[in-house]
Amino acid sequence: MFEISWAITWGGTWAVLLVLLDIATIARAVTREHRSAASRLAWVVVIMSLPLVGVIAYFFLGDTSSDRRSDKKLKDLRRELPKRPKGDMQPPELPLLYRQSFARAASVNGFQPVAGNRAKVTTDSNESIDWLIADIDAARAHVHLLFYIWLTDRNGTRVAEALMRAAARGVTCRVIVDGLGSRGLLADPLWRKMKEAGIETVVAFAFRFAPLAAFFRRLDIRNHRKIIVIDHDTTYVGSQNCSDAAFLVKKKFAPWVDIMMRISGPVAWQSQRLFVSDWMVNGGTDISDILQRETPVPDDGFPAVVAGTGPNISVQGVPDMAQMLLASAQEEVVITTPYYVPSEALQQQICATAVRGVRVRLNVPANNDSHFVGFASRSFYRALLKAGVEIHEFQPGLLHAKILTVDGQAALVGSPNLDRRSFDLNYENSMMLADPTTVGAIVEKQELFLNASLPVSRKKVESWSITRRVLINTVGMMAPLL
C-alpha cells in the first residue's frame, strides 16, 4: 500500500510540474517580442499538444535570440557606431513612388539613401568570382569579406589564394564566416593557411559543443549575409556564397543559380558599417576608425540604401520593404526567390497587387533543397493563382537569386529569402535602388530565369491528389514556426 501511495504521490507531483512547465513556456512564447500572432498561437498549440516535447522544441527552435551578451554588444554598437560618413551628404531626390519604400529601408539601420552609385550585374557565378578576385588583386588598403557559406572548392580556394596574395603585399584582409554554414572551411587546412598568411578572421556564431550550447542560445540563428567591401568604395550585393555553382555539399540540386552586383560609390560605406558591426560583435578587434572617413558623392549615379536586418534588428524589415515596393507597382512585378514561405501580410500584398491589375510573376525552384520548405511554398500556390499571380518553377538547378523588381525602375536585391527564417532568424543584408538602367539589367537576368522555368497552372494545382494536398497544407500550417 505504501509503495502504491508513494508512486501516486510522485506521479501527481511530476504531472503538476509538467503542467507548470507548460504554462511557464506558454507565457514565454506569448510574451516574447518580435513574434507574429500566428507564430505565438502555433507555439501554444505545439506546447499544449506535445507535453515536454513541445517545451523542448520551443527552447531549441522558438526563441529568436542568440545570447544575451551578443545581443547587448550589438545593441551598444548600433548606438555607438556612426550611421553616416563624415561630410555633408545631401539626400538624393527620389522618385515619388518609391520614397516611402526607401524611407522604410533607411530606417532599418538609420542610414539614408545616397546618390552617386554605379553598378554592373555579373553574368554567372564564375564571373562573380573572377570580378572579386580581380578587385582583391587590385586592392591597396583593405579587403573585407563576409560569407555564410565558404567552400573549399575551386572558386572558394581561388578567393582564399587571392586574399593570401593581397595580405603578402601589405593589404589588410579581414574575413567573417558563419560557424555553421562554413564549417567545412573551418575544419580544412585552407582556413589555417589563411590565418598563417596574415588574414584576420572571425567566426560568427561559433560553437564547439552544440548540445550544451543549445541550452543557452538558439543554434540555428545564423549570419546569412554576403558582404564584400574593397578599399572603401567598392562593394558587392547579391545571393552568391563563396563557392562553385556546382555546390558540392548539395550537388544533386546543382547548379545553384545566383545574382551578384558590383557597385562602386558612397553606398559602399553602409555595407562597410554592417561589416564593422558584425566583426566587432563576433569577437574581432575594434576597427571602427575605418568608418571615420569622408565619402564624396559623384555628380552622376543612382540612389541606393543598404538594410541589414536580423532577429533583433527591425524584424519586419524585409517583408515591410517588399510590401511597400509592391504597393508602388503600376505595371509589373517580378519576384525571384528560392524559398517562399511569406508572412500573411506579404502573401496578401502580393495577391492584392495582382488583383488590382499589376502583372506579378513569381519564380521559384522546381526542386528545392529543403523538401519541407518546398511543400510549405506550394501551400500558397492556390491563393496566388486565384489572385492572378503567375507562378513559374525553375528547372535546370536551384534558383538561389533573391530579387524583387518593380516596373523596371526599382529593385530590392540581397541575401534574404522571402521566408520566415530570413525575416525572423537570420542576419541578412539587402540593397534598395532606383535606376532604369541598372534595374533593367536585373530584369534581364530575371527574364533568363523565367525562360528556363515552367509555368504552374491552376488546373495543375487543382488536380493534386487529396493526399498531396493534405501533406502540402499540413506543412503550410506550420509556416509560422519555420
UniProtKB/TrEMBL annotation:
Transmembrane segments: 6-29, 41-61
EC number: 2.7.8.-
Membrane topology designation: Multi-pass membrane protein
Domain (PLD phosphodiesterase) ranges: 219-246, 395-422
Region (Disordered): 67-92
Keyword list, A-Z: Cell membrane, Lipid biosynthesis, Lipid metabolism, Membrane, Phospholipid biosynthesis, Phospholipid metabolism, Repeat, Secreted, Transferase, Transmembrane, Transmembrane helix
GO biological process terms, semicolon-separated: cardiolipin biosynthetic process
Biased segments, Basic and acidic residues type: 67-87
GO CC term (a single one): extracellular region
Gene Ontology molecular function: cardiolipin synthase activity
Cellular compartment(s): Cell membrane; Secreted
Superkingdom, natural source: Bacteria
Primary localization: membrane
Keyword set includes Lipid biosynthesis: yes
SMART domains: PLDc
Function: Could be a virulence factor.
PANTHER family for this protein: CARDIOLIPIN SYNTHASE, PHOSPHOLIPASE D
Protein name: Cardiolipin synthase
Organism: Aliiroseovarius pelagivivens
